[in-house]
Amino acid sequence: MESISELLSRRARDDSTKPFCFFEESPLSFGELAKRVNRLASGLAAAGLRAGDPVAVMLANHPDHVAVFLALAQLGATQVPINIHLRGVGLEYVLTHSEARAIVVDERFAPELTPILARTAFDLLVWRGEPVPTESARSVRLEDVVAAGTAKPPRSAPDADHVLSITYTSGTTGPPKGVMLGEKPYLMAGHVAAQLADVRPGDVMLTWEPLYHIGGSQVIVACLQRGVPMALLERFSASSFWDRARRYRATQMHYLGGVLGILLKQPPQRNDRAHPVRIAWGGGAPAHLWEPFARRFGVRIRECYGMTEAASFTTINLEGRVGSVGLPVPHFEVKLEAGEIVVREREPGLLMKG
């Protein structure tokens, strides 16, 4: 299985001019993406970051977030995705518990971040936008880091077994827990996401899910694996959802939680079926909404079940049985026990490291 960095290199070589990401009015090709990632990774290395360093990432959905995700993977650093809605004690807990020594952050989140900087162990603050001066750490602009980089990626390839990310749970049963994932779960998540979404040449994956969530970041990997572009939205908007799908000629849409119900509550339109989306894939489709959604919008639903801790997918429903999360994926053994779903890996490295 190719690594994330190898996938990016291959796409830059073989599909350089093909689009990788549509965002607002700015399409980004595979070749342009690779150049930015290489410069960013080497620039971060020049700024002192090394393989294994925990680096927090607090960015909204944007092509720069994609580049940061890939650059940190290329560098072999351990990224700590930060929910951009975290505030106060919750934000400080994740930043201190993860022992992040650097953060890449959008300047819009400075009001939430700056009050707690003195109590963190950051050596480096990389700002998307204008740096906020602080006595506790060095502040630089993301664009200056890119400008200081080189066209060649860092020489040392990351250890294949390195921890690619520490992703924190929501903390519903106690303090948030940092899920340690290697690169292999992300590669498998991308593979299964593309299978579930029935991705084919010429498809475009509409992506509104936050990239700090594995539901969003796995699409980055899937697009690299299949050589198709994503249409990246900054956030979910029910009122403009189908207009954006038409605008980017998207063929797949992701759903999670109440998204299908929210879209169904929108006033019916004559052009409800006038869009290119053919597959809605995700988790949490209520059985009573399944057929009404499919009829109204002319979209096939493909449901799944899974969690970040287990490479995102445990079961997938490829047959369309209403209300079902489907059958276990081949690389996991799945058993139902009293009050539990027990998942064991058939292939080493697909479950969380801790």
Summarize the structure.
With 354 residues, the chain is of the alpha/beta class. Helices cover 32% and strands 22% of the residues. The mean pLDDT is 95.
Description:
The structure is a single chain. With 354 residues, this protein is of the alpha/beta class. The chain has 2 domains: 4-182, Rossmann fold, CATH 3.40.50.980; 183-345, ANL, N-terminal domain (Rossmann fold, 3-Layer(aba) Sandwich). The chain is 32% helix and 22% strand. The chain is built from 11 helices and 18 strands. The strands form 4 sheets. A 9-stranded mixed beta sheet has the order 2-1-11-10-12-13-14-15-16. Helix 2 (30-46) packs across helix 3. The longest helix has 17 residues, at 30-46. The model has no long low-confidence stretch (mean pLDDT 95).
